[in-house]
Write a structure and sequence with these properties.
There is one protein chain. Helices cover about 75% and strands about 0% of the residues. By secondary structure, it is mainly alpha-helical. Helix 5 packs parallel to helix 8. It starts with a helix and ends in a 6-residue tail after the last helix. The model has no long low-confidence stretch (mean pLDDT about 95).
């Protein structure tokens, strides 16, 4: 990936996490990156193409993160703690989960982006279900759905309150360590 393309994606991800995907334009990106909007269009013909690239890149990063957690951290409870710590970092940075933010903009994103987001959250729930299965939960897929829902919702509330502990309190009780 070219350096310019990476810079566009990095900035777009950050802006999506702080303002929402509809909260910035190619003009905003061009000004911040220091290029012309035509250069952005060279890499991403339309904003829908940029959105899809962002979600696909985020999905790849999620997959790599889950593999790393599975390899480096011994217990499912500790893996879930590490996952929560990662997401709480967004609150400290005054951001929110990029895919959660884009999912909230459902009506204004393309069908291809909707599908990519659905795959992202499916992958997320599948990994969570494996953790809950290893913990002996009686219904791992249901626990995974509830967990990701609580996590995403608590990020919104924690951001509003400026208090990352909201995330911990909302997820308390899912795992008895």
């Amino acid at each position: 990936m070219t350096d310019t393309k990476t810079r566009i994606l990095d900035l777009s991800e950050s802006l999506t996490q702080t303002k929402g995907f509809n909260g910035f334009s190619y003009l905003d990106l061009a000004a911040e990156v220091g290029i012309k909007t035509s250069s952005i269009h060279y890499h991403f013909k339309a904003k829908a193409d940029l959105a899809l690239a962002l979600v696909e890149r985020h999905r790849e990063a999620l997959d790599a993160a889950f593999k790393r957690l599975d390899h480096e951290i011994e217990t499912p409870a500790e893996r879930l703690d590490a996952l929560v710590a990662h997401f709480k970092g967004y609150i400290r940075e005054e951001k929110i989960c990029m895919c959660g933010m884009m999912a909230a903009e459902f009506e204004s994103i393309s069908p291809a982006v909707r599908k990519a987001l659905a795959l992202y959250f499916r992958d997320f729930q599948n990994w969570l279900a494996k953790q809950f299965s290893a913990l002996g939960h009686p219904n791992p897929p249901e626990a995974a759905l509830q967990y990701v829902s609580a996590l995403e919702g608590s990020l919104l509330l924690a951001r509003l309150e400026g208090d990352a502990s909201v995330v911990d309190r909302s997820l308390d009780g899912f795992v008895n360590v």
